[in-house]
Amino acid sequence: MSKLFFFVGILGAHGTLSSNAQEFRTEILALQGNAIQNEQGSVLGSLRKAQINLYGDICFRADVIENEIKKDAIVRNFGNGEEVVTMEGGVFNGAEYESFQDPIIDSLGRIAFSIALKKNTRGVTPNNSQLIAVTGSSPDEIWIVDRSNRLALVTDSFEVDGSRHLRFGDLFFTDSGNLLYHSLLGRRDGETQYYRNMVFQTDGFVDSAVTFRRNEYLIRGEEFRQVDGNVSALQDLQIGLSGDHGGKIRALTLESGAYRLLELDQQITTDILRTGQDLPGFEGFQITKIRGRMSNQGAKPPHVVTAFNGTTTVEAIVRGGLDSPIETVAFSQQAVPGSSDGAKFSGFGMPFSAENNSMAYTATESVGESFRQSVWRKLVNGVEPRCLAKSGEQAPGMAEGVTYRSFGRPMINQLGQVVFAARLNHGFGINTQNDFSYFVAEQNLTVRRIFGEGDLFFFGWLNLLRIEELELTDLNSAGDILFTLRAGSNASAIVKVAIPPTKFPHFEQWAEENFPTLAQRSRSADPDQDGLDNFWEYAYGTDPNDAKSISTPSMLSIEADSMRTLAIEFDKFSEERDINYVVEFSSDLLNWESGSDVSTEYRREESAPGRMVVGVRDLNASKSSRRFVRVRVED
Asked: Which of 66, 89, 220, 309 gets the most CB atoms within 10 Å of its CB?
């Protein structure tokens, strides 16, 4: 099957996109109307959320049109076109498939999903109407495009103490290839129905038979009774699963109002956080709530917790685990780093972490009586979180005056790229097309627009339509970002966007190269104790491990325009970086000015590889008998 490559977003509803957008390579992996490779006469209908693995294999739910009949289906594309894994109407042991939950995929190309079975088939009752299936192949066929479509039943009538599976929740593949799943089990004793939440683990495929060696539980909740007759509304105990963290499994339980965050390591369960425990770094503030849902990676995934000391409630982001101490990353009532207007954090969205423990999250900030949102990133090798975007700021790639209004949950990959959605204020007094866009922030804090509602997009050959809906669904550690785009009911596509990282270095990379420990990598740290912090030494090119290495701006008086003129010379990067040098002049030390009408550069000489000395002089020396100069470094 041929693949379509093109530039994203030819024209936005309120102006052209920035040239950066044309650096993104975009590939359509599934398109509504495409023929199904292994189902003759069938085509793809509407597409839903997709997942992608490290090697670019994808799986997703979709409607499949067969003889003008629409059916729910699980579909994959392993580089050879769209293929149906299974679909509505299929039969297992006499039970007919009715619908599916969104599938997951691992690095081996195995796909797992839960199936709702039609009631009254094979005697299935309303309380026993789901099963979990996994597709896969033997190791010697892993990288072959036409991998086997073996179907393995994980569980159907599996029982624990007389309780049968009723409904399945989260599914996760571990790094070792096992499948984890959360199940609600039930049993009846006379007229009373009892329920139990449990987390199970399989042990992978057996080569000689399509079955599993082991299906055992890791967490076993206390049994409870149905109260209101509605199983889905029961809240006596809930379990949220998070993926494989350095070979360990993380789970969040809520029992009788008490939260408990667990880490499981080969049948050994250890508490990480629980209700009543002090918030790390906040003595006397006891944790009252641990927020789910968890969908994070890495050995120390983050969580949002609420704590109370008897008078004050705080919300915080914490991260850590068995192999590292729990640390508080950010907390409400904390002054917002880098803010000059007195802003404080008041709350946080659910964070997202990559496999290397870098993380991204949204925050709500309060400034007096007003509130705004912001997007933050904390790299694994950096100490301070860095702000990427704030409400009210100009949105890159949009017409002047179009600003950020609010943000969706960001996602981050191992490259340090953060992808986030933003609602926009147009400044035109309207709320129409291009109100919703996706942006990517690089490690060096450069933010670029990807695309958004209202952009023109080729949904197939010569089918140029405006995007009406778009959703970020997944990203992998190779930097591939997966979107589902829609334009009405008859046009949808699953699109992979590859965004090459910007090439110029950044402070975090410099700090990692110069210091062995995280504490030394802080911007405000001074490891060589020369009175100059790391950020100063980074900006002005000194050795942060040598107290004798000094480079400071020099103020001098030069002859220019037939008069003595104030000037400043300093060392700076000669190539593009994540910082800017701003030279400012003043007559009273209160009001500072910069720009081409205030100063001009008169010297530029190479001082070292990648660095240069520049000289900047005053253009307004005649305005006052007293003139002052300074150079300011900003992100």
From this structure: 66
414 or 589: which carries more pLDDT confidence?
589
φ/ψ bin of 281: left (φ > 0), alpha (ψ from -120 to 50), beta (otherwise): left
Distance CA 523, CA 635 (A): 12
Nearest CA to 86 among 131, 127, 122?
131
Instruction: Identify whether the C-beta of residue 153 lies closer than 8 Å to the C-beta of residue 165.
Output: no
Reference 488, options 463, 457, 509, 466; nearest CA is 466
Contact 199, 219 (CB under 8 A): yes
Write down the pTM of the prediction.
0.74
372-406 burial: b if 16+ Cβ within 10 Å, else e: bbbbbbbbbbbbbbbbbbbbeeebbbbbeebbbbe
Which of 256, 255, 253, 247 lies closest to 271, judged by CA?
A: 253
The residue type at 363: A
First and final C-alpha spacing in the chain: 46
Beta bridge partners of 535: none
Nearest Cα residue to 29 out of 65, 8, 4, 63: 4
What phi and psi, each to the nearest 5 degrees, are found at residue 366?
Answer: -110, 135
Question: Measured at the alpha carbon of residue 67, what is the angle toward residues 61 and 68, in degrees to the nearest 5?
Answer: 70
Strand-pair partners of 624: none
Question: In this predicted structure, what is the pLDDT of residue 25?
Answer: 82
Query: What would the pLDDT profile of 437-454 be if each residue is shown by its tens digit?
Result: 999 988 777 888 998 888
Q: How far is CA 611 from CA 171, 526, 539, 542, 573, in A?
A: 52, 22, 10, 11, 4
CA distance 560 to 558: 6
CA distance 590 to 493: 56
CA distance 217 to 199: 5
Which residue, 469, 478, 455, 471, is CA-closest to 409?
471
Look at the block and give the residue holding tokens 């299936």. 133
Query: Quick one: which H or E segment has residue 170?
Result: strand 163-173
Whether 316 has a pLDDT exceeding 80, the answer reads yes
pLDDT of residue 143: 19
Place 35 in a pLDDT band, splitting at 50, 70 and 90. very high
Q: Say which residues have a Cβ less than 8 Å from residue 64's Cβ, sequence separation at least 6.
A: 36, 39, 42, 43, 44, 45, 70, 71, 72, 73, 75, 84, 87
Do 169 and 184 meet the contact criterion of CB atoms below 8 Å apart?
yes
- pLDDT-based confidence at residue 429 (cuts at 50, 70, 90): very low
**Cβ atoms of 557 and 567 closer than 8 Å:** yes
Give, in order, the Cα–Cα distances in Å from 285 to each of 313, 348, 560, 597. 8, 18, 63, 54
Distance (Å, whole) CA 458 – CA 31: 11
Among the listed residues 72, 82, 161, the one whose alpha carbon sits nearest the alpha carbon of residue 117: 72
* Per-residue model confidence as pLDDT tens digits over 216-237: 566 666 666 554 444 433 334 4
